[in-house]
Amino acid sequence: MLQEIYGDCEAKMQGSIEHMQRKFKTLRTGKVTTNVLDHVKIDYYGTATPLDQVGSVLTPDATTITITPWEKHLLKDIESAIQSANIGVNPNSDGTQIKLFFPPMTTDQRKESVKQMKGMGEDAKVSIRNDRRWANDKIKKLEKDKEITQDDSKSAQDNIQKITDKYIAKIETILKDKEAEILKV
């Protein structure tokens, strides 16, 4: 029973870290990535479709993204979707592809990205603490239902705290590495 709770708790905490890392992909670092366009969708025959499913989205260098639609009539739709997404740049079309030129990040922009990243890290820590509370509630219920002893309950809650500490430390390490990446010029 307790091993199952430990396993479920670790799986939930790992999921929180993975969610945080997915959110990091939307942050701008020194090198632009195609992930800044992940939330941009166009109307493709009545369906909201991500850009990477209607054309090739590439980063030829550290500050440029090119979008080459597979169907040329989509150029205008893609341009308007990018403009309405407000990602900080205007699309430049040459009739066959769209180029997005991102200026190099200023120190203030880098600090703002670090601030957003730390907020995402705090959200992940809150999620992990919620997972800890969930596991402790399960353990307390087992104790209340007399399925485990009070000593077993205390020991299990200590184990849950050790698991929590391990995942909080992982988040701290990830945040430190990501901050160094963002601030590196």
Question: Explain this structure to me?
Answer:
The model has no long low-confidence stretch (mean pLDDT 90). The protein has 185 residues and is α+β, with helices and mostly antiparallel strands. The chain has 2 domains: 103 residues, Topoisomerase I, Chain A, domain 4 (Orthogonal Bundle), CATH 1.10.132.20; 68 residues, Gyrase A, domain 2, CATH 3.30.1360. A hairpin with a 2-residue loop joins strand 3 and strand 4. The strands form 2 sheets. The chain has a 4-stranded antiparallel β-sheet with strand order 3-4-6-5, with helices on one face. The chain has a two-stranded antiparallel sheet with strand order 1-2.
Brief sketch in words of this structure:
The chain has 185 residues and is α+β, with helices and mostly antiparallel strands. The protein has four helices and six strands. A four-stranded antiparallel β-sheet has the order 3-4-6-5, covered by helices on one side.
Index terms:
185 residues, alpha+beta, Topoisomerase I, Chain A, domain 4, Gyrase A, domain 2, 2 domains, 4-stranded antiparallel beta sheet
What is the CATH fold-level name of the largest domain?
A: Topoisomerase I, Chain A, domain 4
What fraction of the residues are assigned to beta strands by DSSP? 5-15%
Order of helices and strands: HEEEEHEEHH
Biggest sheet layout: 4 strands, antiparallel
Q: How far is the first residue's CA from the last residue's CA?
A: 50 Å
Per CATH, the class of the largest domain reads Mainly Alpha
Shape: elongated
How is the largest sheet built, in terms of strand order?
Answer: 3-4-6-5
